[in-house]
Design a protein that fits this description.
The chain contains 10 helices and 12 strands. With 315 residues, it is of the alpha+beta class. The longest helix is centred in the first third of the chain and has 29 residues. The protein is elongated.
Length: 315
């Protein structure tokens, strides 16, 4: 039953065999014997694809939860005996905050769970959790697949940033409406975009535009540092640029929609290794991102060389 569920979910004998750690021939033979015992054909096999028959679809719907519950019960017994264990495979976006903050959370988790081996793949969305054999994914966009289980764990604050050289030439926007007269690095294909800024109970939708657009936050940051215009950015992604004077935040009293952070799994019935990581990371990651956002709002320190000059010029 468990072998059939693994093959049916992946719709691939080779992927299921790799996940189970057994030869493809052995897995295929076991499924054939299972079909013979049931007396019904559950899978249609061709050289190019594998599909469920109507009997296979009905059987999968009935037994998936049984298999998941049995696996969870086994994992719970193992966790009681020696703690959560196994290979935990995580997919995460290649964003700067992941490299800087999620890495620390994973390091702390790993030090406390010596029997869990954590592997992280940096992959842009969308991620195929089943096909690529991931236990969970970290996402900043809610998946479209309604069958996936999505847990919102944190939010990352966004702000407006530009290079001092750009503002020296064009001036700083004093109100959201001023953005219409500025060059903006558009975060999607096209010459314009609509940004919604909020302050208290007030909300303003502004149409912005510029000669450069891109779908990469890292590249947009580079364009902004080079003086090509104003960009939106996660505040924790550019805090070092602000501290070093490469970027300056504008309209700090106005906020853009925050970037949500989700944990995504294929089932609510999770093995002990996944549940222990989600419980641990949910608390730690939310606290770490909240602290990083608060720190990024603090005024940048005046560089030492500037302070010396100021003292020399003072009466």
């Amino acid at each position: 039953m468990a072998l059939f569920v693994e093959v049916a979910r992946r719709k691939s004998f080779s992927q299921a065999a790799a996940a189970l750690g057994m030869p493809i021939s052995s897995l295929s033979r076991r499924i054939t014997l299972f079909e013979s015992a049931v007396g019904l054909r559950l899978l249609d096999r061709t050289t190019r694809k594998l599909a469920l028959t109507s009997y296979g679809e009905a059987y999968l719907a009935q037994v998936s939860r049984l298999v998941d519950e049995a696996q969870r019960t086994f994992d719970d017994m193992m966790a009681v005996a020696k703690g959560p264990s196994g290979f935990l495979k995580i997919a995460a976006p290649p964003d700067f905050w992941v490299l800087r903050h999620l890495s620390g959370v994973i390091t702390e988790f790993s030090s406390q769970h010596e029997h869990i081996h954590v592997h992280v793949d940096l992959k842009p969305a969308p991620v195929d959790l089943v096909g690529d054999n991931y236990d969970l994914a970290v996402a900043i966009e809610e998946p479209r697949e309604t069958s996936l289980i999505v847990r919102k764990v944190a939010e990352v604050e966004n702000g407006l940033f530009g290079a001092p050289a750009y503002f020296d030439e064009r001036g700083e926007p004093a109100t959201p409406l001023d953005l219409e007269n500025h060059q903006v690095i558009v975060p999607a294909q096209g010459a314009s975009a609509v940004w919604t800024l909020s302050r208290g109970g007030e909300s303003v939708a502004i149409t912005v535009g510029g000669p450069i657009s891109c779908n990469s936050p890292s590249l947009a940051r580079r364009f902004a540092v080079a003086g090509q215009g104003i960009t939106t950015a996660n505040v924790i992604n550019v805090d070092s640029d602000v501290s070093n004077g490469r970027l300056r935040r504008v309209l700090p009293d106005w906020t853009l929609p925050a970037t949500p952070v989700y944990f995504v799994t294929t089932s609510r019935l999770l093995p002990a290794k996944s549940r222990s990581f989600i419980d641990f990371a949910t608390k730690r990651l939310a606290a770490v991102l909240a602290t990083a956002s608060r720190d990024s709002r603090r005024p940048a320190a005046t560089p030492a060389r500037t302070r010396v000059i100021e003292r020399a010029l003072s009466p």
